[in-house]
Design brief:
Blueprint (H helix, E strand, L loop, with lengths): L1 H19 L7 E11 L4 E6 L4 E5 L5 E3 L7 E9 L2 E9 L8
Parallel strand pairs: 3-6, 4-6
Antiparallel strand pairs: 1-2, 1-5, 2-3, 5-6
Length: about 100
């Protein structure tokens, strides 16, 4: 039974990864530090490790894990939408491996 459940979880993960890649490979994952947050405008300015600054926008469909604050490290997945980097997923803080 455990093998069947494990196999089902692996297949679900592979399917999810495949669906995530269906956007033509245009999505981008970034790790950066928040330098400015504009909650009213649903945007934040982030700085990557190589010193590049970029503005990232979010909307009601964006999955945000944590509280967006200046100085926090974020992991962001973005898509180009109308010439803007639109976040589809944001994780605030250090990425921890999931416990088994």
């Amino acid at each position: 039974m455990k093998k069947i459940l494990s196999l089902a979880l692996v297949l679900a993960f592979v399917a999810a990864v495949g669906l995530a890649g269906e956007h033509g490979g245009k999505g981008k994952a970034t790790e950066a530090t928040i330098t400015k947050v504009d909650n009213a405008g649903k945007s934040m300015v982030v700085k990557t490790a190589d010193g590049k600054e970029m503005t990232i926008y979010w909307d009601d469909a964006t999955k945000v894990e944590g509280t967006l604050k200046e100085g926090e490290t974020v992991h962001v997945k973005t898509m180009d939408k109308g010439g803007k980097a639109m976040a589809t997923w944001v994780h605030v803080g250090k990425m921890e491996p999931k416990a088994k």
